[in-house]
Amino acid sequence: MRSIKPSEISGKVDAPASKSLMIRATAAALLAGGDSRILEPSLCADALAGLRVARALGADVVGLDAEIGISGGGDPRRDTLNCGESGLCMRMFTPIAALWGRLFLVTGEGSLLARPMRLLERPLREAGVLIRTRDGFPPLSVKGPLRGGKITIDGSQSSQFLTGLLTALPLCAEDSEVRVENLKSRPYAAMTLSLLARFGVVIDSDPDLRTFRIAGGRRYRGTTYRVEGDWSAGAFLLAAGAFAGDITVGNLDILSEQADRKVVEALESAGAGMDIADGSISIRRAALKGFDFDATDCPDLFPPLVALACYCRGRTRIAGAERLKHKESDRAVSLLKEFSALGARIAVDRGRLEIEGGRLRGGVLDAHNDHRIAMAGAVAGLGSEDGVSIRGSDCVSKSYPGFFDDLKSLGGDIT
């Protein structure tokens, strides 16, 4: 358990590397025939799970520091692919594993075993893959080869499976067309297309990313790829600066395709004082007001924005709460329960979280083994009356292992 006492923060810290881009780059490097260099990689638990799966599928991985070398194109070494607790790994690497004509068991640990995977079944069967789930949940057994052709998928829960199909289908012999119904998180699909192009595969799509036309018989090429800073992680630091001090967060590209870059819009709506420079955001404490924000395409912003809203005068409404059910926890329920216990006035109304601002009392927060709940609680603790103690705080290693160290370096009183 870690405890965060009321604190004023100042200074500069860099956002960690993006785990979403790291895992995508790992998959592309696995499928490339040559050598790739991944610079400034993410080494969080989810990213390490992606590297472990890539090794099992035949990649050679060298180094785990500021640079990682990945040599792809090898034969699979193992029949069990352990995705840890990463939903992206499972939904993305399952269609990739189906490129081989052999049986794989795709499994995971902890909360991942309770996350729904039924949405993979019908599309993969349409593409010639034998797949079986545990009544819609992991583990999955999958046997290719993936055939390609015309595939329709449901994108209402997640775009992660779409990312896997877009990565795998270019290597099929025949051309493919993927149609997506009810796509949420469009920025993540755009991010995938951009990354794949860096590895030599360009995919055609319509402007609103509902139909993708994929030429078959393609090959990825090895490349050097630097992983961007993670806006999902940086959002917590920026929220903290808006009510607890004056800080600068580096390693954030304002032109990034990451969905969570929209945190800047929410901060502006709340009245935060910001200066945006090349690769960094400076934010200073200000008199904040309640704001309206649609997080449908960026649901990972809910936790930092809830923490922010607690220190805004008036009511904040954050739309898109239906996207929160199948995360590491049922995140809307976790936010309601834990922030209410800290003294927040928070409710769900017609798919929106509504928060009436005012300083939090503080107390004990259970992270529910959810890294973003833990970080939200820590940020909220900075401005609270009594501080916040977090049960299960080590779960931040899933995406941001250095979170508490970085917050402490800014002046956070953490024990």
Structure write-up:
With 415 residues, the protein is of the alpha/beta class. The protein has 2 domains: 2-16 and 229-414, UDP-n-acetylglucosamine1-carboxyvinyl-transferase, Chain (Alpha-beta prism); 19-210, Enolpyruvate transferase domain (UDP-n-acetylglucosamine1-carboxyvinyl-transferase, Chain). The protein is 30% helix and 26% strand. A 4-stranded mixed beta sheet has the order 22-23-1-24. Strands 2-15-17-16 form a 4-stranded mixed beta sheet. A 4-stranded mixed beta sheet has the order 4-5-3-14, with helices on one face. Strand 12 and strand 13 form a beta hairpin. The protein starts with a strand and ends with a strand.
Provide keyphrases for this structure.
UDP-n-acetylglucosamine1-carboxyvinyl-transferase, Chain; 2 domains; alpha/beta; 415 residues; four-stranded mixed sheet; 26% strand; 12 helices; 24 strands
